[in-house]
Design brief:
By secondary structure, the protein is mostly helical. The protein contains 13 helices and no strands. It has a single domain, classed as MetI-like fold, CATH 1.10.3720. The longest helix has 34 residues. The two termini are 38 Å apart. It is a multi-pass membrane protein. Belongs to the binding-protein-dependent transport system permease family.
Length: 267
């Protein structure tokens, strides 16, 4: 059977033209960045010691922060979905607050918390220094991105009928058993989608990382920091190389999300 298309009206043609113009603009901007350096220049920049260090550090810190996000997000999202408790609305606002904060503001808040505040003073007295270290990168990535993981995971849990868990309990499952054997398997696609998006955003986190971890070459230099540092010093090819990697990660992440995140909301 051949698919039949309706004759475009002025209304539909206008909206399609606007959509096409936007797509062309976006593709042109991204393509212009990727194609700006010659291929040999791009390869040389991608294989430089600085960019390789930034790739390695970004992969390690984002993997750790994403793992922490999953560990925290699953129970929090489940509690917000299934349980009623005093102050739930306020808790929901607090959990989602970092989503509304500019990353630089989140970075300032973290810097004060782990710096001159009582908590920071106690940590330093105990020999634990967070500020301007690799650990600070993980902390900043976690703080900014755990709300995304919570929202995506919560959306996945909301699509699951609570009656499935109730039936499992009537058949002898404990609360934990029903959660592990029924709810988690049904939420797998949403969890995978959340994992990928959270990991991608962790790798791309800049503002909070810049303020809490600093921008030290070959020490706290993640890929976004590498873009910032190389733009600041006029090393355009290295900045573009780091940008190309981030674009590739974002593209792959969105493709995976489209594949596994059916019906799952990010915001």
């Amino acid at each position: 059977m051949h698919r039949r298309f309706s004759t475009p009206t002025i209304f539909s043609a206008t909206f399609l033209a606007i959509s096409t113009a936007l797509l062309v603009f976006m593709v042109a901007v991204i393509a212009g960045l990727v194609l700006y350096p010659s291929l040999p220049q791009l390869i040389a920049s991608l294989t430089s010691a600085e960019i390789l260090f930034a790739i390695q550090l970004s992969l390690i810190t984002s993997a750790i922060s994403t793992a922490l996000c999953i560990i925290i997000a699953v129970p929090v999202a489940y509690a917000m979905t299934r349980f009623s408790f005093p102050g739930k609305s306020l808790a929901n606002v607090v959990v989602n607050l970092p989503l509304s904060l500019p990353p630089l503001v989140a970075g300032v808040a973290l810097l004060i918390f782990f710096g001159p505040s009582l908590v920071g003073t106690v940590l330093r007295a105990s020999g634990i220094d967070i500020v301007y270290t690799v650990t600070a990168i993980v902390v900043a990535q976690f703080f900014v991105n755990v709300p995304y993981m919570i929202r995506i995971t919560r959306s996945a849990f909301e699509t699951i009928n609570p009656r499935y868990e109730h039936v499992a309990r009537t058949l002898g499952c404990s609360d934990w058993g029903a959660f592990r054997q029924v709810t988690l398997p049904l939420a797998t696609q949403g969890l995978v989608a959340g994992l990928v998006i959270t990991w991608s955003k962790s790798i791309g986190e800049f503002g909070a990382v810049l303020l809490l971890a600093g921008a030290t070459t070959m020490k706290t230099e993640t890929l976004p920091i590498a873009v910032y540092l190389n733009i600041s010093t006029g090393e355009l090819n290295e900045a573009i190389a780091a940008s190309v990697i981030l674009i590739g990660i974002a593209l792959v992440s969105l493709l995976v999300f489209e594949r596994y995140g059916d019906g799952t909301r990010i915001l």
